[in-house]
Amino acid sequence: MSFGHWSPSPGSHTRSASDALLQSVDLAVAAEELGADGAYFRVHHFARQLGSPFPLLAAIGARTSRIEIGTAVIDMRYENPLYMAEDAGAADLISGGRLQLGISRGSPEQVIDGWRYFGYQPQEGQTDADMARGHAQVLLEVLRGEGFAQPSPRPMFPNPPGLLRPEPHSPGLRERIWWGAASRQTATWAAGLGLNLQSSTLISNESDKPFHLQQAEQIQAFRDAWQTAGHQREPRVSVSRSIFALTDDRDRAYFGRQNQDTDQIGFIDAQTQAIFGRTYAAEPDVLIQQLKEDEAIAAADTLLLTVPNQLGVDYNAHVIDSILTHVAPALGWR
């Protein structure tokens, strides 16, 4: 999973938006060749990071044939749900049905109430989080593929019979939408709607337990709510982690002296205290033992590895390959 940063700072191999986009495609191709299962991207606005995801997802879909292609997450406060359904349908069809879209209320922003500049405003008595969930529910309804728009009696081109829907429609995409939940409450809400669950390295701090235990409890609350809702399919659950196997001098130089091997507590806004999960960086044998104790990883079915994209495609391919070769087999991930 890439944040898609770019910066002209010393040491950056990703110095422009063009670099970030083209290198993202190249890294996804490399990840598929190495045997990874997916390429996921963060979405942030008003920042030197990847913004509108669908051109990138479509390009990766055209260059790959097997891996999942997704987001973690799209901030729904900024989205027109109908236009998003068209973009997502096109990208999914280009990739042959491999799109996995993570959506959510979003994360702290670079600007104040950035969604206002995109033309969106919560209704009276609503919060921006309510607006995000409302946009998400409209998107989910549209992705069902049923017509709802009255056709013109004098269309430019012939219409199929009945009410019309946004096109192109991609069957099955509705079941490949994930909600990025920061709390047990939003995880439960997502389960009720039949959304898959994405849980990040940052969640609401809801007890005095370590991060991985709180996250495991969030996952269990989601699964319980899913069962109560009576959905007919099995949900998917992902967690993200920063994990680096120290196998050569480059790894040790970049990550061997990190002081992030414990959880961190902080505030993401004035009202919300969050807990940040630790970074794992160690020799492979040590790393394997550490990861065996992470209960949230054990509870999930999908692990998203954050990559330091500004260190370039070749080094990030090495990071991915090191996990696939030296760590994943011992943990039964492959």
Describe, in short, the structure shown.
It is built from 10 helices and 12 strands. With 334 residues, it is an alpha/beta fold.
Mean pLDDT: 95
- Structural class given helices, strands, pairing? alpha/beta
So what's the oligomer here?
single chain
Global outline = globular
Number of helices: 10
Instruction: Please count the beta strands (DSSP E, at least 2 residues each).
Output: 12
Query: Which sequence of SSEs, written as H and E, runs from N to C?
Result: HEHEHEHEHEEHEEHEEEHHEH
Taking all Cα atoms into account, the compactness measure Rg is 20 Å
Fraction in beta strands: 15-25%
How would you write the strand order of the largest sheet?
1-2-3-4-5-7-12
The separation of the N and C termini measures 18 Å
Instruction: Please give the share of residues in helix.
Output: 25-40%
Residue stretches low in confidence (pLDDT < 50, at least 5 long) are: none
The largest sheet, given as strand count, sense and whether it forms a barrel, is: 7 strands, parallel
Structure report:
The protein is 38% helix and 16% strand. The protein has 334 residues and is of the alpha/beta class. Helix 3 links the parallel strand 2 and strand 3. It is globular and about 70 Å long. The mean pLDDT is 95.
